[in-house]
Amino acid sequence: MIRVVVVLSCIFMLQGCVYKLVTVPVKVAYKTTKGVVKGTAAVVGAVIPDGDDDEDDQKKDKKD
After folding, report:
1. Residue 33 — φ and ψ, nearest 5°?
2. pTM of the model
């Protein structure tokens, strides 16, 4: 009986530690991936123009 109480109390006291062990690596991986994706998108956008300027020119021609 005492062992059950000790185990349950340890589980409740260590919940914060387990939460940190799980969430911190996930947050780091998310931020790293987010930065890599943004950098890749910027490089691809610089290398391969998507033609947004052409669309803007066509809209200006229609207004005139």
Report:
1. -65, -40
2. 0.45
